[in-house]
Write a structure and sequence with these properties.
The protein is of the alpha/beta class. The protein is built from 14 helices and 13 strands. It has a seven-stranded mixed β-sheet, sandwiched between helices. A four-stranded antiparallel β-sheet has the order 9-10-13-12. The chain is globular. The structure holds pyridoxal-5'-phosphate (PLP). Pfam families: KYNU_C.
């Protein structure tokens, strides 16, 4: 694709975009605002605003306790089944519960128990820090019987694939990685690494937080064991909406939830005094789900299913290729570096640009330029492409504004003290 750097070209690409109409299904409160952070907090689907009103007035206000039998009790499985279609799983292999971090805790504890005798947990230094903290906490809790092996990435962009493969051994209990890594957007080859881990007798747990809804995932084709993921990024589920977990069918009865609460109890309304895990995935529930935010996940997932994940991926790659070409032409000469793989098949749906003045440029972009990206230390400006509502015009304008910030030195008025949420 040869690109032209004019706005008319971006507008032509938008006019030809067969997913463009999905933008109207989201709340766009500020027309001038360019939102490049749907990979951190997805926009609000209009259908979720209607559902929220119904949840309050009808389901809670009017139906009261009866609502548990009118769709609330089964919501974790029902919404999980819809998410399953986005990640190549059977409907009974995905359930919605808790946060991603807590689901990681539950599945890692369960996996280590199944793998007793193996002492190593293998991961990389591109993984989301919360995932590493949870692994460290698990090791403490299990009296330091396990060892965390963190393979370093050579350049902070690409995953250390061969180092991970070389490190797998008969001591490896679990390999756990972010499928799409949060800083660089590097995308692991799930099937290849899962197969290598299985050859060593290890289980594999994939964190799909930055993949689900953006990248086609096929857990079955990869024969993946376990997975977790977030619903408030590309799934547009709303701030802090509960996360999901996946357990392959044949493992479900072998794994036990360490947080054994009544929602995971077999026949919970018998109120027996001894815990007995429910059959299937419900055993991975713990307490009563937060129904308001759980319910609001569903409209966003439905939009993704309606658009189709393969079409979304094709648009995401067209848009990230366009962004990378604009970067090369307009921004590379100004000291911006590309901190995301150039190879489309090794990239998720965001593009990270580095610059030695990254933080101050980011602040100018937000405060003076009506563009919302996010920032990841030390110098990553992350530009999230969410193909349901990101336009080519958004991308074009973002690049030109980044250029103006540097050529006109607009960042110089900002200090380097970062705000709390970047
Ligand atoms: C966003 C994200 C999470 C979020 O974890 P929470 O427990 O929901 O805060 C976890 N892992 C990865 C890789 C993420 O990108």
């Amino acid at each position: 694709m040869t690109i032209s750097t004019d706005l008319a070209y971006a507008d032509r690409l938008d006019a030809q975009d067969d997913l463009g109409h999905f933008r109207d299904r989201f709340m766009i409160a500020e027309d001038e605002l360019i939102y490049m952070d749907g990979n951190s907090l997805g926009r609000l689907p209009m259908a979720a605003t209607e559902l929220a009103t119904d949840m309050i007035h009808q389901q809670w206000g009017t139906r009261l306790i009866r609502s548990w039998n009118e769709g609330w009790f089964t919501a974790p499985e029902r919404i999980g089944a819809k998410i399953a279609h986005l990640i190549g799983a059977h409907e009974d292999e995905v359930i919605v519960a808790e946060s991603t971090s807590i689901n990681l805790f539950k599945l890692v504890m369960a996996a280590l128990r199944l793998q007793s005798g193996r002492a190593h947990i293998l991961t990389d230094d591109l993984n989301f820090p919360s995932d590493l903290y949870i692994l460290q906490g698990v090791i403490e809790l299990l009296d330091k019987q396990h060892q965390l092996e963190i393979m370093p990435s050579a350049d902070g962009v690409y995953g250390p694939v061969s180092a991970l493969q070389a490190r797998l051994s008969e001591q490896t209990a679990l390999l756990t990685l972010s499928h799409t890594v949060f800083k660089s957007g590097y995308l692991y080859d799930m099937a290849a690494l899962t197969a290598a881990a299985h050859d060593a007798g290890s289980l594999v747990l994939w964190d799909l937080s930055h993949s689900v809804g953006a990248v086609p995932v096929d857990l079955h084709a990869a024969n993946a064991d376990l997975a977790i993921g977030c619903t408030y990024k590309y799934l547009n589920g709303g701030p802090g909406a509960p996360a999901f977990l996946y357990v392959r069918r044949d493992l479900q009865e072998k794994l036990l939830n360490p947080l054994s609460g009544w929602m995971g109890q077999r026949d919970l309304f018998d109120f027996k005094l001894d815990y007995q895990p429910a059959p299937g995935l419900r055993r991975f529930l713990t307490g009563t789900p937060p129904m308001m935010s759980l319910a609001l996940i569903e409209p966003g997932v439905e939009l993704l299913l309606e658009a189709g994940i393969d079409k979304l991926r094709a648009k995401s790659l067209r848009q990230s290729n366009y962004l990378i070409q604009l970067w090369q032409r307009e921004l590379e000469p100004l000291g911006f570096t590309l901190k995301t793989p150039r190879e489309a098949q090794q990239r998720g749906s965001h593009v990270s640009l580095g610059h030695q003045e990254g933080l101050r440029i980011d602040l100018a972009l937000i405060n003076d330029m009506q563009v919302l990206p996010d920032f990841r230390a030390p110098d990553n400006i992350r530009l999230g492409i969410t193909p349901l509502y990101t336009t080519y015009r958004d991308i074009y304008q973002t690049v030109l504004r980044l250029k103006a910030i540097v050529t006109e030195r607009l960042y110089e008025k900002y200090s380097t003290d970062a705000p709390i949420v970047t």
